[in-house]
Amino acid sequence: MSTATAMPINSERVTSRGLSILKRAAHDPADRFEEMNGIVGTSQVLQDALRQASIVAPTDSTVLIYGETGTGKELFASLIHELSRRSGGPFIRLNCAAIPEGLLESELFGHEKGAFTSAVAQRMGRFEAANRGTLFLDEIGDVPLSLQSKLLRVLQEREFERLGSARTVRVDVRVIAATNRNLSELVAEQTFRIDLFYRLNVFPITLPPLRDRREDIPGLVRHFVRCAATSMQRPIQDIPRDAIQTLMDHHWPGNVRELQNVIERAVILSEDGLLRVPKLDVESSHFGGSTLNEMERDYILEVLAETGGTIGGASGAARRLGVPRTTLISKMKRLGISRRVSARLCEADRVSLPV
C-alpha cells in the first residue's frame, strides 16, 4: 500500500536516534490533552467530562466517576488529583473488587499486630497512607454491605480505628470513587446503603464509552502507536487508512484499554514500518449480522425463557448465567429487557411448544 493512502506518523524514518520524535506531542488537535495525564481526544462528550473534572478539581468535594471498564476512570481521578491543591500529597489507589471481602477492611483502615492470625506486625491502611492527599477507590459498588457503614463514617467524620485497636485515627483525605455499575440500582436492591450513595455522589462525572466518541480513535491510535513503537524500538512509519477504518468500525466493548492492547499487538506484528491491525473477527462488533449487545440480549432472553422469567434463586437466570442477580437486572435494563417483556416472551415460548 502506498503512503498516499496511509496516515503518516512522522515525516522522517524512525531510527534509534529518531525514536525520540515519537515522544513529542503530535500536531493533530486530538492529542492536545496527551500531556494532561494521557487523556487524548477532542470529542464533545470527552471535552464535557474534562471540563467537569477541571471545575471540581480545586475543591475538596468527593467525586464519583461512572464509566464502563476501560474508559479511563483512573486517569480522570489522577488528573483531578494533579489539578487539585493536594497535588503535592500522595495519590493512593485501591480496587475494591480485587481485594477479598475479609481483607478489605484491613486494606482500607490498617490493623494492629495480632488483630488476626496473619497480622504479624502493625500495618497502615490506604486511608492513612493517603493523608493530605487523594484516595481513589475503584469499583466502589463492590464494597460489601457490612463494611459500608465504616466507610461512611470515615467520609463524614474523617476518623476511624485500625483493626484490633481502640485508638481513633484522624485523617485529611479527599476521596474519588469510581464504578462501572449503577449505584442507584444497587440501592434499590438494598445491596448499597443510600446514605453512602448520597455521600459519594456529591459530584458525579460520567465517562463516555469509546463507541460514543469514535472521532477520537485516530488520535488515540497515533498516541498508542508512538508509545508502543518507542518502547519496542519498532520503526512504524504509516497507518493505512483502511486500518483506521477497521478500528473505527469496531464496537470496542473493552473501550480505550482494549484499543491500546490491540495497537500494542499490531505494532509487534508490523515489521516493515506499516501498521498491520490484527483480525478483530472474534471481538468484532458485528458477527452474523448482530451486534454484541444484540447477541447478549438474545442470549439473556433465551435463558429467561428457559427459567420461566425467574431471575433470582437457585434455578433462576442469574445462576444460569453465572452473574449476581443485581448484575443481571442491570444488564436487562441496559439492553432494554423489562420484566414484563421477558414474561411475555416466556409465555409466547410456552405457547409455541408442541403438544
What is the structural class?
alpha/beta
Helical content class: 40-55%
Q: How many distinct domains? A: 3
Count of separate DSSP helical elements = 14
Main beta-sheet annotation: 5 strands, parallel
Mean pLDDT, nearest integer?
81
The name of the CATH topology of the largest domain is Rossmann fold
- Assign the CATH class of the largest domain: Alpha Beta
Strand order of the largest sheet: 3-4-7-2-8
Backbone CA Rg: 24 Å
Shape: globular
The low-pLDDT segments are 1-35, 282-290, 343-355
CATH architecture of the largest domain: 3-Layer(aba) Sandwich
Give the tally of β-strands. Answer: 11
The name of the CATH superfamily of the largest domain reads: P-loop containing nucleotide triphosphate hydrolases
- H/E element string? EHEHEHHEHEEEHHEHEHHEEHHHH
Q: What is the straight-line distance between the termini?
A: 61 Å
**Which percent range describes the beta-strand content?**
5-15%
Describe the structure using short key phrases.
single chain, Helicase, Ruva Protein, domain 3, disordered C terminus, Rossmann fold, globular, disordered N terminus, 3 domains, alpha/beta, two-stranded antiparallel sheet, 14 helices, 355 residues, five-stranded parallel β-sheet
